[in-house]
Queue: 2 jobs
Job 1
Amino acid sequence: MAGCISAKLLAAQGLQVILVDRFKQSPPVFRAEKLEKDQIDLLAKFDLLSQRRPLADPLGVNVNYNDGRITEHHDVEQYGIRYHDTINQLRQEVSKLVEYRVAKVESIVEDPEHPQSQIIHLADAEPLHAPLVIVASGYRSGLLKKRGVQYREDKDLASISYGFDIERPDQSPFDSNAYGYFLKPDKNGIDYITIFRIGETMRANVFTQLKSSDPRVKELKNNTYPALQKYFPDLEKLTDPFQLISKVEMFATYFYQMRTPELNGVVAIGDAYQSVSPTTGTGLSKVLNDVDVLCNVFVPRWFQNQSFDHKEINEFYQFAQKKEADTHSSRSWKWYADPSSRSGLVYRLKQNKGVQWLVQKLKLRKLRH
Ligand SMILES: Cc1cc2nc3c(=O)[nH]c(=O)nc-3n(C[C@H](O)[C@H](O)[C@H](O)COP(=O)(O)OP(=O)(O)OC[C@H]3O[C@@H](n4cnc5c(N)ncnc54)[C@H](O)[C@@H]3O)c2cc1C
């Protein structure tokens, strides 16, 4: 997502861009399957919302079950998507504008003969040369480790997610396009189940902060429906009984963030820079925000100054809009992991509408004086 969209935006600015990926077509992968409002707004800003295929209708009504009561929300603008469908559609569009190479990147090294140039070594292909390389290689790709990049890691901040398709036993339609069942935030580790329509299929995601050694991890994977009935006791009240009609996909993540590297001519974005807990629904926000800041603020500046020095590249990582999105994502993760923690409380305070209003008022007062 980060690489494709960056390529599109930079080609539109008249830059010569080469997009490199291991795969011609993205294979089915378990990643973001629902677009949130802020993500829809950024896709629309990049003129890409209409290129999402299949073009699902907004989910519309989302029936939420929270703290033991049902709260209904109307007009929720969210879309159910299969990640690889979106990526393949984007790639098709982007490859009309930029050269698309299918190759595995093995390493990115500075050209010893040309200080403003990077050499991108590819498996089974001639190397590429460029003044700027955007690394958008996703979760734990390790591509920049060879270049000496280090990561701040917290393996205790971990998260396990499950995804599967469901239907009613008589195949009749569900009452709503989307359901959410949120458990009381505590250290229990199971956060919520979200059920939503992708095209004709109803998809379910279960998000947890369970550690891999927790016996519930296998229970949710191998004995899914009874485990759901156990951990979400009112689920059938919300959705009526259903059955699983696909295998249960499972994906585990832990927290890392790249330490600000001293790299000339190389910049990392999306999951390649910082990982995300799927529970928080902030992965694509982070990706799209990185793309926005990089392509609309920094890349034009670097090319105008013809300078790709690490000091200038590092200004991207320190840019307020970027840092805010990264911090929001990691704080939200910490809050789900431990709602009583200090960062959890800070996160909750920041989310509180009353506090937001007060901060805004204080900022305005400061401006007036
Ligand atoms: C289970 C799960 C559910 C999620 N749900 C949500 C959600 O509901 N909402 C949300 O906002 N976020 C969600 N996320 C997070 C979101 O999916 C990610 O943040 C986002 O997809 C990351 O995009 P990216 O472009 O950084 O990386 P990716 O989409 O992973 O792209 C990386 C690309 O790099 C290529 N690549 C890697 N190494 C090489 C190499 N050496 N050479 C060539 N190519 C290479 C890969 O082939 C791939 O195409 C979820 C994540 C997971 C795991």
Job 2
Amino acid sequence: MTFDFSKNDLDMSKYCTDRAADIAKHMNPDKMGTNYRKGPYSIVPYQTTHTTGGTIMGADPTTSAVNRYLQSWDVPNVFVMGAGAFPQNPSHNPTGTVGALAYWAADAITTKYLKSPGRLVPS
Ligand SMILES: Cc1cc2nc3c(=O)[nH]c(=O)nc-3n(C[C@H](O)[C@H](O)[C@H](O)COP(=O)(O)OP(=O)(O)OC[C@H]3O[C@@H](n4cnc5c(N)ncnc54)[C@H](O)[C@@H]3O)c2cc1C
């Protein structure tokens, strides 16, 4: 897997930066600058470290990898914990939700799956 910005990501970033600059100009600042995102993704300058997705959770096995209990649609004895379950990046800190989902999945494994192994959500 290659993790990098596509041209479209950079174009969208430029568009948003320009709109923010439009708003800032109307506030008549004494000084202002714009900082466009350029080049490939790098972990070195602090930017987003909230990488999410890859094994996304959903209600439909044709558009998601795991169900609401983080159980693989294809292989019912596989449960996938972590930020990979997020279908999008909701911007704020993910770790609380990652932990809550892990408890939620662990509860489903112990109270439902172990009693009756198989898909916990019909499709
Ligand atoms: C610098 C930094 C600062 C952050 N600050 C915050 C913050 O303030 N608040 C917040 O909410 N979030 C923060 N985050 C984000 C948060 O750390 C992640 O969103 C969270 O750790 C994701 O959890 P995860 O379980 O999905 O993945 P991870 O915590 O990355 O866990 C994945 C695990 O899988 C293991 N692994 C990988 N490949 C294999 C393999 N083939 N076999 C076996 N094991 C494997 C890895 O070793 C790792 O232990 C920060 C992240 C960074 C990098």
